[in-house]
């Protein structure tokens, strides 16, 4: 009867609504007719590590992926997920849109990672999830499909709203370099070299404008209009030039070589649009192997292209490059001749870590004076600071403390859970087995970096390029010293 049909429809509606509220999805065949094999879609959070030597970076760049000489790490992970039937082939071409894919950080060519978090909606069997939401069978299956230099350490179920990038509140990187690179003379002891290095690294701790310790691109400097220009054009339609790209848009180019993640800071103050500052963003940093051949010398301070003076960053750029470094320390890696520099911060601009480390090393080795570090941090004068090679850089870990209330609280592992005082009911991304696997993988990465420094020629090449640095003339040094005094007095007032 009509009443019976309506009753059945109502019951089905209630069932489907209850299933949706619990985050479940009814098993069904997908658009391509392939059965889910009793799998349901769940937001999974998995932790990976990789040796970046053979890869051109983490993130997939669709425009070059098919023809690029080197693969991206994400393309390798994606292929493994498809092969393991955790991801449908029809969803593999647009991961962000179709699988709600997100990563906690982004690394570039040659950079390694120990604990990088990725979240995505994947197909899993409910019986594979243990009481804590971890999925050991997924970890095992992925590791059987992945190459040896890419490993999965853990996979745990999260709520639908979890986003690996938005949840990440801080990132921790390490840079491993040979102790010998810090030597300024034959009499230097290990303790003296480490003490000099630590003194320079402490300068970076706290909140600073890192405009001289990052590769600011043209889009960083010139993509925004000035406030006055916006006010004049308010209410009027403006045709966007064909060659203008808005940062964060799908058309924005992804860095193919260099360093750690690129994080864009949306600033209330906007930089000047002058061509002088655009030209400044194109200047090469010392040690960047991807740029044109290094001249016989490199002038630390950038000369203005339109006057006889020195180029300065506008206030908008200074604010744009502001960031906070929570920790910057150095110690010896046990049983090696490597020094480990650990840096923890909210975010890092393009090439920031490599330039920070390169500048500190240049001072320790006697190629750069202490006061040049003060000038670079405190003054708007544009400077070309030394850039370390990517060989020693690795993403160590991160903190997922920016989760919303529904997503709950999480930590990377039990050690981090204790340090951040994880609230009751919180969960860890790695179980004991996964944490132990990370430690073993760390030894592999350290051995790989030591071999690269020993046989790759980066040590000799970097010191040779340091010898090309040209310090400012005495007249400019006196001018810079006077400006630092003014800045310090203004802060004191």
UniProtKB/TrEMBL annotation:
EC number: 5.4.99.12
Annotated spans, Disordered: 229-282
Limits of the Pseudouridine synthase I TruA alpha/beta domain: 335-395
Any one GO molecular-function label of the UniProt entry: tRNA pseudouridine(38-40) synthase activity
GO biological process: mRNA pseudouridine synthesis; tRNA pseudouridine synthesis
Superkingdom of the source species: Eukaryota
Signal peptide: 1-23
Keywords linked to the UniProt accession: Isomerase, Signal, tRNA processing
Any one Gene Ontology cellular component term annotated for this protein: nucleus
Catalysed reactions listed for this entry: a uridine in tRNA = a pseudouridine in tRNA; uridine(38/39/40) in tRNA = pseudouridine(38/39/40) in tRNA
Pfam family, one: PseudoU_synth_1
PANTHER family: PSEUDOURIDYLATE SYNTHASE (PTHR11142), PSEUDOURIDYLATE SYNTHASE 1 HOMOLOG (PTHR11142:SF4)
Family that this chain belongs to: Belongs to the tRNA pseudouridine synthase TruA family.
Identification of the protein by name: tRNA pseudouridine synthase
């Amino acid at each position: 009867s009509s009443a019976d049909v309506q009753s059945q429809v109502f019951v089905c509606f209630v069932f489907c609504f209850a299933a949706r509220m619990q985050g479940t999805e009814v098993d069904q065949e997908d658009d391509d007719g392939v059965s889910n094999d009793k799998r349901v879609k769940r937001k999974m959070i998995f932790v990976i590590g990789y040796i970046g030597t053979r890869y051109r970076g983490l993130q997939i760049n669709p425009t070059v992926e098919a023809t690029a000489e080197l693969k991206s790490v994400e393309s390798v992970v994606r292929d493994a997920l498809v092969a393991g039937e955790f991801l449908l082939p029809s969803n593999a071409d647009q991961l962000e849109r179709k699988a709600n894919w997100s990563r906690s950080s982004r690394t570039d060519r040659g950079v390694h990672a120990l604990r990088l978090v990725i979240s995505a909606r994947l197909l899993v069997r409910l019986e594979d999830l243990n009481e804590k939401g971890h999925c050991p069978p997924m970890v095992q299956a992925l590791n059987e499909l992945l190459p040896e230099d890419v490993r999965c350490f853990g996979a745990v179920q999260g709520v639908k709203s979890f986003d690996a990038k938005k949840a990440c509140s801080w990132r921790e990187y390490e840079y491993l370099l040979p102790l010998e690179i810090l030597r300024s003379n034959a009499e230097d002891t290990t303790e003296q070299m480490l003490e000099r290095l630590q003194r320079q690294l402490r300068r970076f701790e706290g909140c600073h404008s890192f405009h001289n310790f990052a590769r600011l691109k043209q889009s960083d400097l010139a993509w925004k209009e000035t406030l006055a220009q916006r006010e004049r054009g308010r209410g009027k339609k403006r045709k966007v030039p064909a060659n203008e790209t808005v940062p964060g848009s799908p058309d924005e180019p992804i860095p193919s070589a260099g360093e750690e993640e690129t994080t864009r800071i949306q600033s209330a103050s906007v930089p000047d649009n002058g061509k002088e500052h655009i030209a400044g963003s194109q200047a090469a940093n010392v040690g960047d192997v991807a740029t044109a051949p290094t001249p016989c010398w490199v002038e630390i301070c950038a000369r203005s292209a339109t006057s006889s003076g020195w180029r300065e960053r506008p206030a908008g750029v200074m604010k744009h490059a502001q960031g906070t470094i929570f920790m910057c320390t150095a110690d010896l890696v046990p049983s090696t001749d490597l020094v480990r520099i650990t840096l923890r911060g909210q975010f890092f601009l393009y090439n920031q870590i490599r330039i920070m480390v390169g500048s500190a090393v240049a001072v320790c080795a006697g190629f750069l004076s202490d006061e040049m570090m003060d000038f670079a941090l405190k003054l708007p004068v544009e400077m070309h600071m030394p850039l370390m090679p990517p060989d020693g850089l690795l993403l160590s870990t991160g903190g997922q403390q920016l989760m919303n209330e529904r997503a709950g609280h999480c930590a990377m592992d039990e050690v981090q859970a204790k340090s951040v005082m994880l609230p009751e009911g919180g969960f860890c991304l790695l179980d004991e087995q996964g944490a132990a696997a990370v430690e073993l993988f760390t030894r592999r990465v350290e051995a790989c970096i030591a071999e690269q420094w020993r046989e790759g020629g980066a040590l000799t090449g970097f010191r040779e390029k340091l010898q090309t640095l040209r310090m400012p003339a005495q007249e400019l040094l006196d001018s810079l010293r006077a400006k630092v005094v003014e800045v310090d007095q203004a802060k004191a007032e």
